[in-house]
Every structure is written in C-alpha cells, then in structure tokens.
C-alpha cells in the first residue's frame, strides 16, 4: 500500500504519452524523396501532353487491393503520357497509389515499354500496372506501328478542362470525345485526403456517368458532394468548350 | 440457531491444507498489456511511410491516439469481465483500480483522437482550427459509422463525468452503476467506425481480424463470466435469507441458506456480490465478505450498516431470495508464504479476518489476530473468535479506545512488543482506509517486508 500521488501520476502519464507520440511522429521521414519528385512531375503530364495525342486504354488488371488500368497517350508512335484510370483506393491504398502511380507513369514514358521497375512498397499495384500497360501497348501495336490513330480507339481524343477550385481542393475534368460524342469523363484532380477521399470516391464516378449520359455540362450535383459537383461541372464545361461543343 | 458458525467441516478441512503460496499473475498480465500496445503502435508504424507536413503530423497523432484508445477500450471492458484469474489471483481491488486508471486514460485518448483527427481534417479541407465544429458535423454526416461513433463518444464522456471522484461520491451508488453500464453500448457504438474508417484496418486484413478477435474474445469472456457463470451458480445453489442477526449496534450478520453451498468454491477471505431480491434492493449488488467458512447449507456475511443498502439489510425477511456472484477476492490463504500469520482487523474489517482466523492452516501459536474497535461493545463476533482462539491455540488481542476516547497506540514499537517476531509473519490487513494506512506504516516500521503485507482496498 504505497502512497499514491495522483497529481504526479497524471502529469507523468500525460508527459509520457505526448512525448511518445511526438517521438514516433518525428521519427517518420518528411517524405519519400521519390514520391516528392513524382508529384512534381505528374501534373504537367496530365495537361498539355495528354490533350494532343491519341489514347489507348489497356485492360484492367486485377490485384489483391483492387483493379489497375493504364491509359497511354501515344503520339507519332511514342508514348507521351501514361496514367492510371483505375488504381487501388481506400484507406492506405490511397497513399500507396498516390506515391506509386506517378512514378510508374514516368517510368512507362521513359522506358517506352512495359519493362518498368516495381515501386517498392507497391508491389501489387506495380505488377497490375505493368500488366495493363502491356495490354495497352499490344493495342497500339495492333493498330499499326506508325501511328496510334489507327488503333481501336484511334478516333477518340481527350480534352482536359480548366482546374476549378473548390473549398476542398481543385477539381479538373478530362473528357474523351469520339465521333463528336463524350464517351468518357473522368476527374484528373479531385479533393483528396480524409473524408474527401470518401466523397470523391462516391461522387466522381457518378458525375462521370452523368456527363456521358447528358452529353453536356448540365448535370445534377451528387448529394453530399455539392462543392465537388460544382467544380466538376465548371471544369467539364471548360473541357467541352475546348472540344468544340 | 446460534450466532456461532465456528467448527464446520469445511473450515476444518481448510486448516489441514499445506502452505502453497501462489504468485499473482499481475506482472505477466501487465507485460502482455504493454506488448499489445507496442503491437498497435507497430501497426501504425508499418502503414505510415512518411509524414509530409503539420497536417500529416496532426492526423497521424489522431490515428495513434485512436488506435491506442480502441485497444485499451477492449481492456477496460475485460477488466470488468470478472475473469477468475483477475478477480481471485490478482485481486478484485487491484483490478478495479486498474479499470479506473485505464478507463480515465482511455477517455483522454478518445478525446485527443477526436480533436486531433477533426483538426487535421479541417486543415486538409482548407478550414481553420476555429471551424473544427463544422468539420466535426460534416465528418459525422459523411463518413461511415461516424454517427454511431459520435453517440458512443458522447456516452463515454457522460460516463467519465459521473465517475469523477467528487461527482461520484454525491450520486447514489445505483445511479452511478447504471450509468456505468452504458459503457457497453458506448464501446459497441464506437467499434464500427474503427473498422470502417481506420486506415490500418482497411489495408491490413490481418489487423482487422486481430481487432475482431480482440473484441470478440472480450465479449465472449463477458458473457461467460458475467452472465452464464452467475446464472449457473444461482440455479445450482438457490440461496435465500435464513436469518438476520444484530451482532453489535450497527453490525449485522445475514445467514444465507442454500443447496450444497460448500461446493461454490469460496475460500476464507473472499467475498460475493450480493443482490437481495427484496423491494428497493433488487437492482444493485454489493460486495460483502463471508465471515465464516461456508457450510453445506449455510453462508454468513457480516456487514456494517452504514450505507443505504447495508442499512436495509436489517429489514430483510427470512425467505428472501438471494442472487450472488462470486467468489471473488485474492485475500486468501494463497497469499501466505510463512508459517506464522498476523491478522489485523479494524471495525467491520473483522469479517474476512474472522474466516481466515478459523481456517488458516497453522499449529498452536502460529496465528495471531489483532482486532481494533472503538469500544469493547463494538467487538463484533468476539465470542466466536474467543472460542476459535481457544480451540486452535491461536492468540487473540484487541485494541479499543480508552474510556476518555483516546485512541490505542498501534505503533511499530508497540507491535514489536506484542508480537516479538513480527518480521517473520505474513500479515493480513483489513479495515477502513485511514486505519489500514497507519497500520501498514507501523508494520513496515516494525520490519515486515511490503510483499508480506496482504491488504485489500477498494479505495480508488
């Protein structure tokens, strides 16, 4: 029955907890150098380069954490842009995807083939990426060695809209137009992090479907995602303006 | 029926046992607790490649506190599951103190987790810290299972508030107890958001399985030991009040009859939680120690009528049905490591000491009982004690206030004088907190090592 010192105990426990957590946080690196580079390099790629060439989408590759699907922008027989239309999402997968996909995109453009290195910590995503990339390259080849325009989706082109700023982050829409019709709409950028991930994951696919169905920017907002919907419409309108209606 | 319950066969059997000290499993259990906490932190560590900025730091601090809170929450409930290893080996009193400490700490972690996470989300969404309330409302509306979690957290805060010492002392015990039962609802409500929004559970199926396992195991133990075990006990033994006897002014014994009561496994020094199915008493149970070794058809508890509940015990009528849970408590012969034993009782603390005095194995002269009371009239059960002392060749001493109200001298010197080889004794101590504390210090002063002073205290 030792004497108890409640105040001392409270102070010590609080101090130990706080310093433990601070220590743990400070031991983590500020960022993965590779992912920082990738983030810097990824943005321009989505814009100017992709807008001009032909796009070819590979088949979706299933991985343990979700599907990976790669779309290439091919111009004069060269891969000028690579991006993942689908990648594992939710929870930690968001982190892995945001770290690995930009790197894989750069690797694909640099290698001009599916022989790219796996990103460490993203083995499954890398494997899926390579698989889908290979299938996209196969399509490019099948469409004719000289130019991508003869491919299966050769007539399609992509147009990226302006970035629309919302309270939760930027929204940027890219539409794929084929034969004067919107065949696909997707968000190149959308609010990320925390609960925005949830909202984005539910709202963006719906908005994409709506855009294809409406063939215009006159689409309904998704409830619970008012800001994202508004930004989406805005960027979609600018993409459609650019595509010429 | 006489008040004397001495000399039963069960009691005699217990006196014949060999001295076999058993170590309390407290240390391995605490090590397991820390290992679990380390495992939870490792889970976070593994799933966090980098932290970019202050927002990341805040969010990750929120994740760490959340993971730890989720882990400890399961243990807080486990500590109240009445698992025999905890109740009988570590000791109900110590486990209750662990429970209170862990509970307070967990609640603090929960609040830190809510604040840090909402702050981080607010920063991420480009809001200011001031808009944290708006952020919380949004998150509760938009994220899965967050409505439940918010409700559960609210309950936890209420439970925490009524458990603060100053508030708790002012509330009726029953009210406090029933509010406390809401903990189960709160834990249930807060569980689901851990799984559905927890980053570490989304990516690590193994972590998710472990989490379900942890909570599932605790639920199973809870059902087994708090529901099924008491149900079986009471269906088997069918206890009823036989008689209520006033031992001294203010101290009553309740004799409880039933079937094969010696088969309940109760040892001297242990207690049951009693619920008397009489008007106004059926909704709360109270811990009272056995004051004699159980006989096949009779148990006895001896209680000081001070609180609401204990005062009502006098009005119990024979035939009232009794619901008991137990036996609990680790202040038993198991604690003993030496041949010689000194029992020190203060006031109604005589109850478990009386049972031990009769049943502790020992030759003549091995067992000594020191009984402190205000006056000789307050020495409850004295006749019985004197008879046991005579039969066993045990020493029996009392210390009461002098006629002018002066308190007896229970100092290290005095103890040494009365029990010359006191440092060779195991000491069992039971009494009001102030008394226990002063005797403890006197015993230490007289040279009794702390590990051989066995004490049970339900003070938080």
Automatic annotation (TrEMBL), chain B:
Main subcellular location of this protein, as a coarse class: membrane
Transmembrane residue ranges: 26-44, 64-81, 102-122, 149-168, 175-195, 210-228
Membrane-related topology note: Multi-pass membrane protein
Cofactor(s) demanded: FAD
Keywords per UniProt: 2Fe-2S, FAD, Flavoprotein, Iron, Iron-sulfur, Membrane, Metal-binding, Oxidoreductase, Transmembrane, Transmembrane helix
Record keyword Ribosomal protein present: no
Pfam families (UniProt xref): Ferric_reduct (PF01794), NAD_binding_1 (PF00175)
The keyword Cell membrane appears for this protein: no
Entry-linked PROSITE patterns: FAD_FR (PS51384)
Domain of life from the UniProt record: Bacteria
Domain FAD-binding FR-type: 234-334
InterPro entries, A to Z: FAD-bd_FR_type, Fe3_Rdtase_TM_dom, FNR_nucleotide-bd, MRET, OxRdtase_FAD/NAD-bd, Riboflavin_synthase-like_b-brl
PANTHER family in UniProt: 1,2-PHENYLACETYL-COA EPOXIDASE, SUBUNIT E, NADH OXIDOREDUCTASE HCR
Protein known as: Ferredoxin reductase family protein
């Amino acid at each position: 029955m030792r004497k108890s010192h409640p105040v001392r105990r409270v102070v010590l426990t609080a101090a130990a907890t706080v310093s433990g957590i601070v220590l743990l946080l400070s031991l983590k690196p500020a960022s993965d150098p590779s992912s920082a580079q990738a983030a810097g390099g990824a943005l321009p790629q989505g814009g100017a380069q992709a807008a001009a060439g032909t796009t070819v989408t590979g088949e979706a590759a299933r991985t343990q954490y979700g599907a990976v699907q790669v779309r290439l922008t091919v111009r004069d027989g060269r891969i000028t842009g690579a991006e993942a239309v689908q990648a594992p999402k939710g929870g930690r997968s968001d982190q892995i995807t945001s770290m690995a996909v930009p790197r894989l995109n750069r690797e694909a453009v640099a290698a001009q083939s599916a022989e790219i290195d796996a990103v460490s910590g993203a083995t499954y995503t890398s494997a899926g990426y390579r698989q889908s990339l290979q299938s996209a390259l196969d399509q490019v080849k099948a469409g004719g060695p000289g130019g991508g325009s003869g491919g299966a989706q050769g007539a399609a082109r992509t147009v990226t809209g302006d970035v629309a700023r919302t309270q939760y982050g930027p929204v940027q829409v890219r539409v794929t137009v084929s034969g004067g019709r919107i065949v696909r709409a997707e968000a190149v950028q959308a609010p990320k992090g925390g609960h925005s991930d949830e909202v984005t994951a539910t709202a963006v696919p719906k908005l994409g479907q709506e855009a294809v169905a409406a063939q215009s920017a006159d689409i309904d907002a998704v409830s619970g995602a008012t800001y994202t919907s508004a930004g989406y419409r805005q960027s979609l309108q600018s993409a459609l303006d650019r595509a010429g209606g | 029926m006489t008040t004397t319950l001495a000399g039963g066969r069960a009691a005699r059997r217990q006196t014949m046992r060999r001295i076999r000290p058993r170590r309390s499993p407290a240390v391995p259990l605490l090590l397991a607790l820390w290992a679990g906490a380390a495992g939870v932190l490792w889970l976070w560590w593994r799933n966090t490649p980098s932290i970019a900025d202050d927002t990341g730091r805040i969010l990750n601090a929120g994740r760490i506190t959340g993971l730890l809170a989720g882990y400890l929450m399961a243990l807080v409930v486990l500590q109240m599951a009445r698992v025999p290893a905890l109740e009988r080996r570590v000791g109900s009193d110590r486990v209750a103190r662990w429970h209170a400490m862990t509970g307070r700490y967990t609640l603090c972690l929960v609040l830190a987790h809510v604040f840090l996470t909402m702050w981080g989300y607010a920063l991420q969404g480009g809001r200011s810290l001031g808009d944290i309330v708006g952020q919380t409302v949004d998150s509760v509306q938009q994220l899965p299972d967050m409505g439940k979690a918010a409700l559960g957290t609210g309950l936890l805060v209420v439970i925490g508030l009524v458990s603060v010492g100053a508030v708790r002392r002012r509330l009726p015990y029953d009210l406090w107890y029933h509010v406390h039962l809401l903990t189960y609802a709160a834990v249930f409500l807060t569980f689901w958001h851990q799984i559905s929004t927890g980053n570490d559970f989304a990516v690590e199926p193994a972590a998710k399985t472990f989490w379900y396992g942890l909570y599932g195991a605790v639920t199973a133990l809870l059902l087994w030991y708090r529901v099924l075990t008491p149900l079986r006990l009471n269906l088997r033994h069918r206890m009823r009040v036989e008689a209520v006897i006033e031992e001294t002014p203010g101290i009553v014994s309740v004799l409880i009859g039933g079937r094969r009561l010696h088969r309940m496994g109760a040892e001297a020094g242990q207690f049951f939680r009693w619920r008397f199915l009489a008007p106004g008493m059926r909704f709360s149970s109270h811990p009272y120690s056995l004051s004699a070794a159980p006989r096949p058809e009779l148990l006895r508890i001896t209680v000081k009528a001070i609180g609401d509940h204990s005062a009502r015990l006098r009005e119990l009528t024979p035939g009232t049905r009794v619901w008991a849970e137990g036996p609990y408590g680790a202040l038993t012969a198991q604690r003993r490591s030496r041949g010689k034993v000194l029992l020190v009782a203060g006031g109604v603390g005589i109850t478990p000491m009386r049972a031990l005095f009769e049943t502790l194995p020992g030759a003549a002269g091995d067992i000594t009982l020191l009984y402190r009371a205000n006056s000789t009239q307050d020495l409850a059960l004295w006749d019985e004690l004197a008879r046991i002392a005579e039969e066993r060749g045990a020493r029996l001493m009392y210390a009461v206030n002098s006629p002018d109200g002066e308190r007896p001298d229970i100092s290290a010197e005095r103890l040494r004088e009365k029990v010359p080889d006191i440092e060779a004794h195991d000491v069992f101590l039971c009494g009001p907190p102030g008394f226990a504390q002063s005797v403890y210090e006197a015993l230490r002063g007289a040279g009794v090592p702390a590990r051989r002073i066995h004490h049970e205290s339900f003070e938080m």
